[in-house]
Task: structure prediction
Amino acid sequence: MKGAGSSYDELVALRSKTVFERTTLLAASGDRSRLDMTAAHVLSLLERFPALYREAWATPSNAARPFARDGFDVGDGWFKLVDRLSAKLAVDPSNHIDQLKEKWGRLAVYFEREESVPRDLSLDAEMEAAINEAEEESERTCLVCGEPGTIGKRGRWVTVLCEPCVQLFEIAETCRSIAERLEGLDLAAFSANETILDAIRMELVYLGHAAAGQPPASRARLPGIDWERLDQLRETKAVMVMPVGDLWRFAIEEASVLGRKLR
Ligand SMILES: [Zn+2]
Result:
């Protein structure tokens, strides 16, 4: 998609809370351990299937145009299956995607055909089948990384994740929980509060266990993390005898940083 009014930069400039910024908004809000579709993948879909995604150019504030508002509201792990589905749907240029999102952990595709174009029933059936197939495939595809996964409730969300991503999710959740407990506390209050101290110790042990379960492939995905240090945390005794200052430093300096890195 080239030409005036349709460059990626111009599209980004036009939007406030659309797909292009949602990635950062979600990461900043910190309430979902998932990775939205990357800008490069979004751009690739928009450029290759401009008619199918023509709603991307509509006014995002218009609630009647959910694709314009929410864009590719799915994890990056589903890029390949969305890409394959797009190629099938784009065969008929009268088609467009009305909405594309994750619903109860599964891909949900809402799709429209131009009313004025005569219908081809066999083509319609093919499109329906392609959508069903993609939606079923999404139930077995990790929405973070695209590896085989299973659907289940993780935290507050029903999500499809692979095993390594489940463990990363647990690490991120633990870091988030530590950061939440510390909010508004200073070191003096932290040292005096036995309940918080115990809770943080338990979180750190849990964090160590989750880190120890990380296979090499998922460790390699997050090279900025001191895995050795995280592995040591699973030793219950070591954490329990850790001086308050060390516990505090870890919780303050590292937990929130780790949580951000894992999103
Ligand atoms: Zn995964």
